[in-house]
Design brief:
about 5% strand, mainly alpha, D-Maltodextrin-Binding Protein, domain 2, 4-stranded mixed β-sheet, two-stranded antiparallel sheet, elongated, about 425 residues
């Protein structure tokens, strides 16, 4: 036990003290914050910075709709500094006017032109010409202003009060969807969806990242012949177990820090956006009870043990980094395949595809946490999934230990499949 603790402590301490561990651990939440807060802030700044005062409005409606659009563009929170220019024309002269303005837009002397055809009020037919460098928000702002003016023109022609009609037309359904679990708890369907998908993707990233760390650790020790010295005082099984557990401890520390940071960021998202002037609300986080947290932790530990055993086995039979990159491809494809099947699992968490994948040990560490965040999984199904995963993880660890014992000191030619099977079948 003392030797196992020494190996675990060496693997854990060596990585926790490294600069790269500190940088990735601290930088991870900042990167997530940039992805969470950056897009809303940039979109807000882009919308606020739009100046459509230089846009030319060509009005062939005969009902002065262009002036109304210009008023819409110059008013409100996103309004322009000046009222855009309006050209009153008719259907006959509109073609020549548009051709002339198109050349101005092509030469970047005008940012854009909006043409309201003679039947624009009845049909909504509007043509907008923009420079190639115009932001997408330009057309969105124009469409909003034109839509409001055409609606005002229509209700006015019908003899209704324009402002009252606008209020009626702007009614939108605000539907809140809650998923009610079997224990009576409920939560937002959208939040649960994001939570389940986020947990699945995070576990995938951690499994890939730390599984490859196990692979590189074994490969480096074999290349440098350090393993020959270590095996003089420690058995291969203890060395492999200490390596897997020590690196797994590093993964738990980093994953725990990332989880706490992300939860704190999401809980205060509204406040942080309000500090930079962007209107938003705090995200309602899903409630995670102990009955949810314990299976999530179990899937991470068992999934890591399963894939760490596979990566360690690959590292022990190869003789160089290049061989390791090629030999690990089947393992990576198992993980990538699980992530590729997230979409059908998201579409129907209780469907046959999701239920089957949550029972297969190679995909259950990713698919089952996703389902736990979306639906109530029967206890018998959860127990069967965890049992199969635990059995395969234990079997792979034993097989990897036997392979590790023999292959670690083998150099030169890569062993054949028959030799690998024979080494695994040898008694410990």
């Amino acid at each position: 036990m003392g030797k196992l603790a020494a190996v675990m402590g060496r693997e854990f301490g060596e990585r926790v003290r490294s600069r790269w561990f500190l940088l990735t651990t601290i930088f991870g939440p900042f990167l997530f914050a940039a992805f969470t807060l950056g897009p809303p802030w940039l979109a807000f700044r882009t919308a606020r910075s739009l100046d459509l005062s230089a846009v030319v409005l060509v009005d062939a409606t005969g009902r002065n709709a262009g002036a109304g659009v210009a008023t819409e563009l110059s008013g409100g929170l996103m309004g322009t500094a000046r009222t855009p220019k309006v050209i009153i024309t008719n259907a006959t002269a509109a073609t020549r006017t548009l051709d002339s303005l198109r050349r101005e837009v092509a030469a970047n002397r005008l940012p854009g032109v909006a043409y309201l055809s003679a039947n624009a009020i009845e049909s909504g037919a509007v043509t907008v010409l923009l420079t190639s460098s115009a932001p997408i928000a330009t057309s969105e702002r124009l469409e909003e202003a034109i839509t409001r003016e055409l609606l005002r023109q229509r209700v006015s022609a019908a003899g209704l009060d324009a402002e009252s009609a606008l209020k009626l037309a702007k009614v939108r359904v605000s539907m809140t969807v809650e998923r009610v679990m079997r224990d009576g708890r409920s939560g937002s369907a959208q939040v649960n969806l994001l939570f389940g998908a986020g947990v699945a993707v995070l576990l995938y990233l951690v499994l890939v990242l730390y599984g490859q760390i196990v692979l590189r650790s074994v490969t480096e020790e074999k290349q440098s012949r350090v393993s020959e010295l270590v095996l003089a005082s420690v058995s291969p099984r203890i060395l492999l177990s200490g390596k897997v557990i020590g690196i797994g401890g590093v993964a738990l520390v980093q994953l725990g820090f990332w989880t706490v940071s992300v939860v704190a960021l999401l809980a205060n998202r509204g406040r942080l956006l309000a500090m930079v002037g962007v209107a938003s609300t705090s995200m309602a986080l899903p409630s995670v009870s102990w009955t949810d947290a314990v299976p999530l932790l179990a899937y991470f530990v068992l999934g890591y043990a399963l894939y760490a055993a596979l990566f360690a086995a690959v590292g022990s039979i190869v003789s160089s980094e290049q061989e390791a990159q090629q030999a690990q491809t089947p393992i990576i494809m198992l993980l990538v395949g699980s992530v590729a099947l997230l979409q059908p699992a998201l579409a129907d968490p209780n469907g046959p595809i999701a239920r089957t994948l949550s029972l297969v040990p190679f995909s259950s560490p990713i698919i089952m946490p996703l389902r736990l965040g979306l639906v109530s999984v029967p206890m018998t199904e959860l127990a069967l999934s965890l049992g199969l995963l635990a059995l395969l993880a234990a079997g792979l660890l034993i097989a990897a230990g036997r392979l590790y014992r023999t292959a670690l000191l083998m150099y030169g030619k890569r062993p054949s499949i028959r030799e690998i099977v024979r080494w695994i079948r040898l008694d410990g």
